[in-house]
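Notes taken during the Thursday session

The instructor put the following on the board and asked us to keep it in front of us for the whole hour. The protein is Zinc-type alcohol dehydrogenase-like protein. We were told not to look anything up and to reason only from what is written here. First, the residues (338 in total):
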Amino acid sequence: MKAVGLTRYLPIEDPASLMDVELDQPKPGRRDLLVAVKAIAVNPVDTKVRAPKEGEEPAPKVLGWDAAGVVEAVGPEVELFQPGDEVFYAGDITRPGCNAEYQLIDERIVGTKPKSLDFSQAAAIPLTAITAYESFFDRLGIDVEGGNAGETILITGGAGGVGSIGIQLAKLAGLTVITTASRPESIEWVKQLGADHVINHFEPLRPQVETLGLTQIDHIALFNNTDQHWDQAIDLLRPQGKIVLLVDNKQPLDQSLMKRKSATMIWEFMYTRSMFQTPDMIEQHHLLNRVSAWLDSGKLQCTANEVRSPINAENLRWAHQTLEAGHTIGKIVLSGWE
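Then, after some discussion, the predicted structure tokens were revealed:
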């Protein structure tokens, strides 16, 4: 089967950083689906795993953790899907990724593809939707059914992949959404997605929040640059509030303000359930099906902003380079095989 892989961890400008390769088609284990991959999306996690470092892989390593496709075959204990089903999923970072014509994926972290979206549109959704959903409803404890309606949430990096779906999920739960963006095109993007207020993350946050008539914020989701936003975010967080983080910090995070406010800091890592085979691993299946239904009903909109074809090393290198530049709006998707 066709795939894109790496054997060495190189700068993305190097043609050998991601290469077109031929691999054997895998066979499903007991709860695996064998999925014929039709479209993939690219995320910062891909660039982080691929980033230059020492070491060489004995066989091509396949990255990619966002896909939509068709079930080709199933393992002997599969109960949720059958061949021919159209699915979407974000995958498992401990297994080969979706940058291949066929991929094995545990059925418990797979959802039914939204009927209203094509494969390219559907591939843009899973990783960011799982991350934002778990951040808000599992980690911060916000009521998905609207029990926290009217409360405020600050989402940094609103125009990014997680922010783009996160704004919509927060609005679906009835929250007042304040998000950060700095360029005219990113400001317009987050407003279209439903953000109530947009502030500039390159300027002091408190004065901008106070111009909205607020002195504190109920919930905070740092979806980009933890170090840059930490002190200002904790200053704005209400006493006994919670803050969720996605991006690794490079410097120590001052906890003194957290202590005085009896505040809670929580990390979100969407691979935790699959990595540790947690007893509630199937919750990602239910989560994706709920998101799929919201997309089909029009309560959520697709966040794909650029689609290129085909899926190959050249286009994947371009996508990685674009993400590493740090100015992406929405999601980058690659579709189809040559």
